[in-house]
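hiii so my PI (J.) wants the whole complex modelled not just the main chain, which honestly fair. so below is everything: two entries, each one labled with what it is. i double checked the lines twice but i was tired so who knows lol
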Amino acid sequence: MSERKATIASRVGLHARPASIFAAAVGELPLEVTISLETDPAEDAMDASSILSLMSLGAANGDVVVLRAEGDGADAALDSLVKILETDLDAE
Amino acid sequence: MIGIVVVSHSPKLARAAVELALEMVGVAGPAIAIAAGAGEGVTGTDAFKVAEAIAEVSSPEGVLVMMDLGSAVMSAEMALEFLEDPDIPVRLSSAPFVEGLMAAVVRAAGGATLAEVEREARGALGAKQSHLGDEDPAGLTVDTGPAAEHTIEVTLLNPDGLHARPVSMLITALSTLEATVTVANLRTGQAPVPANSPTALLTVGARKGDTISVAAAGRQAVEALEAVSDLVGKGFGELGTVPARAPEPSPAQPQARPASGALSSGPLSSGPLSSGPLGVSPGLAVGPIVRMPEPLDEPGPVAELPVSEREAAADRIVAASASVALTLREKAARVSGAARGILDATALMAEDPGLIDAAVSRVTGQGDVPERAVWAAVGEVAAVFTQQGGLLAARIPDLNDVRNRIVSELLGRPAPGLPDRSEPYVLVARDLAPADTALIDPAVCRAIVTVEGGPTSHTAILARALGLPAVVAVRDALDLPEGSVVIVDGTTGEIVVDPTDDQMVRAEEQIGRVATFDGTGQTRDGHRVQLLANVASPDSVAEAIEAKAEGVGLFRTEFCFLDHAEAPGLDEQVAAYRQVFAAFPGRKVTIRTLDAGADKPLAFVTAADEVNPALGIRGYRTAWRRPELLDTQLQAIATAAAAEDAVVGVMAPMIATVDEAVDFAARCAAHGLHNVGVMIETPAAAITAGPILERVDFASLGTNDLAQYTMAADRLMGELALLNDPWQPAVLRMIREACQAGLAAEKPVGVCGEAAADPMLAAILVGLGATSLSMSPRALGGVAELLGAVTVDQCRDAAVAAADAGSTGAARSAAAALLEPARA
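here's the output for the full assembly
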């Protein structure tokens, strides 16, 4: 199991546009990735490819989330996902 | 007040009948309960439901039961045997369903007894029978009371005469008075009818211009006649809607009138709470009607799926979701910007793995049919969103859109949302959701007509942005048949259904004529009003010149600062400002210093943690924190102005005190800038415009912020749009305050907000005393044209009427009436 922490950079938090960009990126990976708030227990982690789950996670700007994945290439995949979360997607 | 139970085979029929009846009485109607359908979506009636409905609305004064037909009567009779409280009087009415219900609701709202209501309902066919010439109309044999002691004759002024709504107002007004009143139509010579009976009053058939004789007896007879006279004299409150209807035909200028359509003047076309059709985005368009598909209802419960069929049913959900997502992605590929983002996100939601899993497990686990499974699965997500509130709750409409699309796909119905057309059409909808409007293509959608909505609704704002004519609050719009050709006038709110050839020719001529501006703004009688352009960056200068703007009334400088981590340097600013100044040699260019904060945050001047940014460090206040930014900018403006020939004025945003104006003028003077002004965007500045104008050379009204602060209503909240309307009389009075100060000081006061782009409002602003109007270049033609068609006195009269009006609707109506010749 690989695990990464990321700080949400988008001003509005992990909301509509940022969430859709992130969910689409996760959806393209051949891995199952979960996401949870740093403050929540690991068993509450949700499917990171689900835009609805991402939105209901309610991660605000500055919140820290934990990404988890298992399997080949998990580390590289998580690194790329962290990069997306730590970019202010609204500013683009 | 008695209670009313409506028994019908069809829940839809019952709801529609109740809705229609309640339109007559507004909010203060009697308690009504519906017992309709035999449950499980089956047409029929159910005695238990009727009994429950009676219990629900029971009152000591009694309950009247209205039924549609056949077994409804039997169910209602049986229900009487189940009643828990035998002391409540309950009557079953033999009245006609629709007419009777309407009459009963009106009478019950007026506080009549069970027996009176029942009798009224039973006689409710009278109006129709009398109109159609049937023998012996029922219900007209009501006693007209003792001989009248007082009589008046009054002439009806309102466009539709004594139709349903005025009748209901009349009865309500008289219901509290101790008087017996009768009404007779002198034109028809028919016998007087009692004025407490809606059906009887409707048979009077009094039209606009008819004189009615009103007789009253009893202790308060005089008061009763005064009440009637007052209502008639005020046209039952309907005179204000005249401009929204077809203009009166005049021999000199034949005018289009609604031909045969439901929209002409049907008595039910304007309920008591609505202001009738309202043009909210100016312009004229012709096209066939295309209706938005009606929204979906929740799929009713049906039998559990057998286990053997569940897997196939689950596969249908996956297929439907994929198909919806694909359609949405295809649509996304055809648009750009924000619309594309919305559609991409919606596509992701449509095939959200969590959502699909939840729906599929409802099918495989408990045997739900796919459409119900999807409906319920989305409902669960929506509940989470609702609970979290805020931004998430705001996404619920998108979620419901996804649900509707998938369920429609499963049911094989047309996808909800904007129709896919390539030929021009007029869009008719109950209301438009933002997701729909994002896709409207002004090249094919020629006009928008909606049942709901007001002048500041989403539809109205969008239509104006797209330059599409729009009419809202057209209550019977959905009755217009798909495909029939209509002429839509978004200025007057008039809709002509199935126009004649003549009307078509005239409309097309008018559409072909593009309003242009000749470069000199003035009223018909030569009162000069400078018409200027708002310019947001050097890129938009060409458009302003193309539109023949007399100059620039608002040159926004934020473009220089956006996307910068730190303020731009002097040279960069000088170069940018020179580009705009150079385009207007010898012309006025009013440049505004940096206006950051609130909805325009800039990293280097605004703090991210303000609780209430609209009331925080914004506008001129940012200079408190970073005075050197303002000094650099003023230096850049002075340098650029010296290098070019434009007549440069410089103004500060968001001034609230005289001291700020003095401070700004001093800073400008230090940089050699002498034509100095301030923006009046706060009520504080509007009210103290006199002393402010003693210290500066000019002022410019920012109407968007002035409306926001006057009405204490956040501009960015759609829900507050009705308050954030520059037509609010309070805002108009603020503007007047500032303009009058300008006239007294003999210093120019212009308007550079959104308001100046609305031609009718532009005329009001001129009437209030504005000396120049600055707007987006595309609005110049329309504003110049209207101003050129009216006199300055007309503008002044309209301004007085609008500022004195009691509401935005009344302000618009009054202005439209007084500026009317402009549209002839």
